[in-house]
Design brief:
Layout (H helix, E strand, L loop, with lengths): L2 H10 L4 E2 H11 L8 H13 L3 E9 L2 E8 L1 H26 L9
Antiparallel strand pairs: 1-3, 2-3
Helix pairs in contact: 1-2
């Protein structure tokens, strides 16, 4: 799963969000490392919807601005949980390798 897709699904885990709120939540979750532009976001949302991982929740107009909210589907929540488990296992392997013995003569 692409990192951007994972972060979008993670942003949507607690509640439905609209485009700009997804952008800001992804930026917060990634400590500012991942910044989605509108084109990238909506392309990813379309792809995730086509894959059945998210769906449109509702639409509204707030102060003259149109908002379309998205939410996780059951399949999206399962995919997010599976990817989180995969990343957790990968991080654990990385920690073990980093803590492993150093080969003599290798740079510190």
């Amino acid at each position: 799963m692409r990192e951007q897709s994972y972060l979008i699904l993670l942003a949507l885990a607690p509640e439905p969000l609209y485009g700009y709120s997804i952008i800001t939540t992804v930026e917060e979750l990634s400590d500012g490392r991942v910044r989605l532009g509108p084109g990238t976001l909506y392309g990813a949302l379309d792809r995730l919807a086509d894959e059945g991982l998210i769906t449109r929740d509702r639409e509204e107009v707030v102060r003259g601005r149109f908002r379309r909210y998205y939410c996780l589907t059951g399949a999206g929540r399962e995919a997010l949980a599976a990817e989180t488990q995969r990343l957790t296992a990968l991080a654990a392997r990385a920690r073990r390798r980093l803590a492993g013995p150093r080969i003599s003569g290798s740079p510190a």
